[in-house]
């Protein structure tokens, strides 16, 4: 019985480490290098100027991108759920099919960003600049929230945050 218990604990421990952040990959991105399919869980990329990166397919869950400038960066199919992107600049960035659920995009600048197929469920877009965003649909916005200062493409609207 003890062997079974120890084996179960070992399997659980291996599963837990598989989802831990990768410090080397985070350092790589912090220095301005692309990193596709990387584990950047809880990475701190705040206040950094990191243009033209390819972070497609990467795990940025709970990452901090607050006040970062990541123009033209590719976040296609990335997991940015619960990420803090407060005041970030993402001009012409691609978020195609990215998971932005419950992300904080308050005051984010997304001029010409591609949001085709992005999951915005529970995302806070208060004060975000999305007026020239591409691929944004009413269905996506219906699952997010914003405020009177959220700029949207013509014909779209967003529910108010509580």
Features:
mainly alpha, Pectate Lyase C-like, globular
The topology string of helices and strands comes to HHH
Instruction: Give the number of DSSP strands.
Output: 0
CATH T-level topology: Pectate Lyase C-like
Q: What's the CATH first level?
A: Mainly Beta
How far apart the termini lie comes to 51 Å
In words, what does this structure look like?
- There is one protein chain.
- With 162 residues, this protein is an all-alpha fold.
- It has one domain (35-162): E3 ubiquitin-protein ligase SopA (Pectate Lyase C-like).
- 19% of the residues lie in helices and 0% in strands.
- It is built from 3 helices and no strands.
- Mean pLDDT is 91; it is low at 4-18.
Lay out the secondary structure.
Layout: H1 2-18, H2 23-30, H3 138-142
Entry summary:
The protein is mainly α.
